[in-house]
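Exercise 7b. Backbone tokens:
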């Protein structure tokens, strides 16, 4: 029983230091990749903002999405709006 306890403590200490060493090697790489990804997203957002800001006031641009259907049919899940008054 004492031998099993000593083995368990030894393995816990070994795994602790192993993860600590691996963390010091891998964590900076993961942080660098995360920061680079956030910078890229920020640059994309700034580019999109500048593109929309360059349009002159009053200028209208119509962009169509190929993903959306352009049909005037009411969806079956949508109900018809009925305006009513409560009579007492």
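Sequence design result:
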């Amino acid at each position: 029983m004492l031998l099993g306890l000593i083995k368990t403590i030894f393995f816990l200490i070994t795994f602790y230091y192993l993860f600590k060493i691996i963390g010091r090697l891998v964590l900076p790489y993961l942080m660098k990749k995360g920061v680079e990804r956030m910078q890229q997203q920020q640059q994309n957002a700034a580019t999109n903002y500048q593109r929309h800001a360059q349009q002159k006031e009053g200028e209208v641009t119509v962009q169509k999405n190929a993903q959306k259907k352009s049909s005037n049919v009411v969806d079956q899940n949508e109900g018809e709006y009925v305006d009513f008054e409560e009579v007492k």
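Instructor comment: The chain is about 60% helix and 0% strand. The radius of gyration is 31 Å.
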